[in-house]
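Appendix B, Record 12. Input sequence as logged:
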Amino acid sequence: MSNKIHPTAILEGSVELGSNNEIGPYAVIRGPVSIGSNNWIGPHVTIGMPGQDTRNPRYDSSNAFIRIGDNNIIREYTGIQKPCYRDITSIGNNVFLMQSVHIPHDAIIQDDVVITPMVALGGITRVLRGANVALGCTVQQYGVIGQYAITAMGASVVKHVRPFAKFIPNKPITVNTYAVTKFGFTDLGDEIAAYVLDNVRPTTPRLIEIVDEFDLACQESGRPACY
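Logged structural output:
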C-alpha cells in the first residue's frame, strides 16, 4: 500500500488506511478511524477529535469511530469529529470538503457531496447524496440536507431541505436545475418540480427511493419540518 504521509503529520491509535492517500503537513488523525483509498487530506486537517457536546464535554471518545470512504478531498483546517450518541461519524465517497469546514459529531455525509469553505454543521446532521452546502452556511443540529439540494451562501438552515431544492433565505424554494442535469435526472424534471414546488409525491421508482430515504432521515431526526 502506497500512501504519502508528510513527516509532520500525526497518526495516533488505530488508523486504517487504504492505498494512494496523501496526508499533508501537520494533519492530525486520532483513531479509531478507517480511511479508504485515493483521498487527499490537507495541511492542519484534524480527524478524530471528540465531539463538542455541552452535555458531556469530556466524554470518553477512545472507541468512537470515524469512517471515510474513497476519492475524497479534505482541504486545510477542516475538522471531522468523533460521534457522541451514535455508532459512527461517516464521510462517503467522492466528497469535497473545502477549507475550514466543521463536520460535527455523529454527522453522516453521503457520496458526491460538496461542502464549501467556512460551513458549520450542527451535531447529528445528515447531508445526503449530491447535495451542495454553500459558502459560510450554518445548519442546525439534526438537520437533513436532501439529495441533490443546494443551500445559499451565508444561509442559516433551521429546517430540513428537501431533495433537489434550492434554498435561499426569504425566497420561495426553487428547483436545483444544475443538479438535475449534472446527475442525470433531466427526463424527470417535471416530476421533480412538482415534488419540490408543490410537495406532490413522485411516482417514478428512482425518485420514490430518494424521497423515502429523505423522509426516513427526517423522521429519525425528530424534527420533521421542511422548507
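Residues 205-221 form the longest helix (17 residues).
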